Amino acid sequence: MQPVRSKRGFLIFFLTFGITDLQLMSFKEKISTAKLPSHVAIIMDGNGRWAKKRGMLRTFGHENGVVSVRETAEAAAELGIKHLTLYAFSTENWNRPRREVEALMRLLLKTINRETKTLNKNNIRLLAIGDLQSLNEKTYEHLLKAIDETKSNTRMDLILALSYSSQYEIVEATRQIAARVANNEISIDDINEDMISAHLFTKNIPNPELLIRTSGENRISNFLLWQLAYSELYFTPKLWPDFRKEDFYEAIVDYQHRERRFGRTSEQISEKERK
Ligand code: FPP
């Protein structure tokens, strides 16, 4: 190749080779480790449509969704993200056809049992939020066992939202706080944002800085309504079973370009925070 001498030559060289290289650069290489979200929450959507496109049953989509769960958990842990919450089964999902619900419960059980060893190997702690006792007995027992077996792991929390609804969670928190007032343990004036947070399923987990939803739907669907108050929302048309590490990295890069103002003006955000 001829050496590039003129300014014009350099420009042509850059446009033909430089930009191509930039485009080929993985999103992972564009991630700044200094500005990582500590908690990412994901609404894994599109399994049914993914399966339908292939002329298969919806459960085929859920089974393939597990591959994306594994990939995403691996990507998050490798990056150094501390908490990853996955919306695996909502309270409303109980209204799906019985066979689909049963298949999802079987898949959940199978995945928990199969993956516990890998979670331990990778130092990942399994947690769950939701009305867990409404799960069938076997799934509930195995879930508790997996949670117990991974309880000392410190690299990342993998939090499954199971039989979860945010409104249910807030109602439960309200009931507990009301009971404490009724028992004269606390007064009405003690109730504030921190107290409500401390009565949610997520009490020991920081709020997510980033929410990802797949499949092109732009909704929150009763997921972490309180906790997402200031989260950045990222919607991608990818269906969940197609979601891979690179898609996760892309979401993180997008997040890192957002200016998080928390109600302040742009000018008030210090240079340090921007980095
Ligand atoms: C939403 O897609 C997905 C679910 C209700 C279930 C998510 C479950 C998994 C990915 C597998 C199990 C997960 C773990 C953690 C073991 P949808 O069925 O609503 O898709 P659609 O909108 O295309 O119909």
Q: What does this protein look like?
A:
The structure is a single chain. The protein is an alpha/beta fold and 275 residues long. It has a domain at 37-165 and 208-256: 3-Layer(aba) Sandwich (Undecaprenyl pyrophosphate synthetase). The protein has nine helices and six strands. It has helices at 7-24, 47-53, 58-79, 98-121, 137-149, 166-182, 193-197, 245-256, 271-274, and strands spanning 39-43, 83-90, 124-129, 156-164, 210-213, 232-235. Strands 3-4-2-1-5-6 form a six-stranded parallel beta sheet, with helices on both faces. Helix 5 (137-149) links the parallel strand 3 (124-129) and strand 4. The chain binds farnesyl diphosphate (FPP). Residues 44-49, 58, 62, 65-66, 69, 86, 88, 93, 107-108, 111, 160, 215, 240 line the site of farnesyl diphosphate.
Number of strands: 6
Based on secondary structure, the structural category is alpha/beta
Percentage of residues assigned to helices = 40-55%
| Beta content | 5-15%
- The CATH architecture of the domain at 37-165 and 208-256 can be named as 3-Layer(aba) Sandwich
Average pLDDT, to the nearest integer?
Answer: 92
Number of helices: 9
User: How far apart are the termini?
Assistant: 39 Å
* Low-confidence runs: none
Shape: globular
Strand order of the largest sheet: 3-4-2-1-5-6
Order of helices and strands: HEHHEHEHEHHEEHH
Q: How would you characterize the largest beta sheet?
A: 6 strands, parallel
Task: Write down the Rg.
Answer: 22 Å
Q: Which homologous superfamily in CATH is the superfamily of the domain at 37-165 and 208-256?
A: Decaprenyl diphosphate synthase-like
